[in-house]
Each structure stands twice: as C-alpha cells, then as structure tokens.
Amino acid sequence: MKKQLKNYIMIVCFLLFIFGFAVASFISEDREFSENENRYLQQAPEFSWKKLEKGEFTSDIESYMSDQIFMKDQLVSLKTVTDRTLLKNYQNGVYFGKDGYYLQDYQENRPLIEKNISCLNDFADSLDKSVDVSFLLVPNAVSVMSDKLPAVTQTDDQLESEKYISSILSDRINLCFPYDQLKDAAKSTQVFYKTDHHWTAEGAKVGFDALMTAMNEEIPQVSYNIETVKDFHGTLYSKAPTDFSAADEMHFYTNPDNSVKVNYVEENKQTDTLFDDSFKTKKDKYSTFMGGNFALTEIETNGESDEHVLIIKDSYANTVMPYFADKYKHITMIDMRYYHIMDKTVSEYVKDNGITKVIFLYNMDFVNTDNNFIWLE
Q1: What is the DSSP string of 179-207?
Q2: What are phi and psi of 271, to 5 degrees?
Q3: Could you read off the pLDDT of 164-213 as tens digits, one per residue?
C-alpha cells in the first residue's frame, strides 16, 4: 500500500512539474530574439484555414512552442552539463574536443557539393576570359584541428571532399585550399576559435597569404594595430552551453595608414571602418567584422593594387577583409544568401563595374550545406 501511494505521489509530482512548465511557458512573455542562439524566435502564428490545410499552422505552432519554452536556455545548459558529467563527447552536432575546443561535425553531402561546384563552374566559364577567377576554399576546424577530436567520432574527412572538388572544378578556377598552411600555423597560433565555427583573425591571415601566393600576388607588408576583445562565446557554444567553458579572445587588426570607405548598398549606409564596434559588447561579437553579412557591400581603400575585385562569399570572408583592403583599392562583396533578390545578376554586375578579379571565398561546410549557389548567374 505504501509503495502504491509512493508511486501515486511521484506521478502527481511529475504531472504537476510538466503542467507547471506548460503554464509558465504560456503566461511568460514571448522573446523576439535569442542572444544565445543569435537568431529571431518564432512568434505566435496567426490562424487561417488556408495555413491549416497546408500544414503550415501546425508546423508554426511546433516551432513556436519549441522556441518559447520556459527557461529554454537554462534547460539546454543543464542538458550539456549532464552529458559532460556522463562523459558524452557529442551534443547537437558538436564534438567536445581537447583543450576546450568545440568542433562542428562534418557529414559530406556529395550530391549537394557537386551541384554547388557546378554553379561555380558555370558562372566562371560565362565570364570574359580577361577576368581572373580564384577560389579560397577554407577547411574547417574539425579537419585542421582533428587532433583535438575525441578518440571515437563519425565525422567525414574534408580532405576527401577537397579531392573531389578539385577533380570536378573548372580549369577556369584557380583553387587554393590552405589546409597545410593552417595546420602548420596551428602549432604556434590559434587559427580557429574554440567556441565558434569561424577562423580567427590570425587564421584568416594565413588563408589570405596562401591565396595571394596561389594567385602569384605580392603579400602587403603592414604593421597592424591590434585590439583585443575578451569573453566571446560563439555559435558552437550556443549549441551546447555550459558555465565552465572558457571564453575566446578576439583580435581585430587595423592598418593605421589605410583609409577605407564602406557602402552597404541595400541598407543605404556608409561607414569609414571595416568593423562595427557596437557588436563588441554583445554576444554576437563575430559580427564586429563588417557588421555581419549583407547582399552587396562596396569598399574603397588606398590599397596597393588598382584592380577591382569581386569577392563572392560566406561569413568567413568578413575576417579577411582588413587584409584584402591593404591589397586592393576597389572591393565588392556579394553574399548570395541575400543578393538573389537583387535585380541585377552577378555577371551583369561584373560587366557593368569593370571587375578584373573574382574570388570565391567559402568554407568547406558551407559548400557542403548551402542551397543558394543556384542564384549565381
């Protein structure tokens, strides 16, 4: 009888706990933006019979309930602590590596890689022969820092992906894959953040130098001012947060002798810096580089070369811009995730603006997962 009563009490307590969380989630104020996840959260969807018929309403409700659950950030952190206590080395697409490294899993999607590289090939082949085309393909930390991975993993080999890309890449495109250079630099320098999926400013410099060498270009010799910003917890930390994970340091390199003018075309915003200092006090400190990602950004500098360079890019390129600014006087950045809604195609932009060099700058995981290459024409 006592055992049965004990079971009833446990069931009632459990139901009260679940009910309490549901009520708390319902009555608590909805959040619009998650600093921890660095994204806007699903808001309460408006009902319509049309949405219900298409299944959109139920899908939106599921997303809303997932995003607005009471104490979500604390629950995710609790799960991470529990997993680490149980000696688990993987959570939410992230490996817990040695020396405090969070390493993003990589599972090769060869059909999508083939599709994306085909888009790059078609675009490069359509350009006038006078336009040089290069491709800085950046390996991720899971490859370069593979020695930091746990003993047992199921991640795919990015070196094999690079071999495949090289085999199908158009002869029109000059490929630079700075794996060896980053691997060597990592012996003495931190080339990737421990809590974020991006490379550091030092890693970006290694990649830039490798690209210049591959393009038979001279590397600018510059004495930089360096600013340090601490307490950076990046995107990978957000997937598996814990209080005992050490924060990263960020370094921002500026050339005191260079003058830059930046035009964010769609935003109708102009600045005289490659950095947005407002992000230095926010969680998303990486967006200090170029202020984040935009469809079309035009940059004028007093760099060494008078050429007009177009960089078609992902977010890895943002960290490299201080070095590009010392090399080229005229730089345009296009991000296909946002540019595809523009009226002018990229090839039209190349012709209309006297572009002499095109540089694709993407990290391997982006080529393996992104679906916006199809807009490149």
Answers
A1: HHHHHHHTTTS--B-SSSSSBPHHHHHHH
A2: -140, 170
A3: 999 999 999 999 999 999 999 999 999 999 999 999 999 999 999 999 99
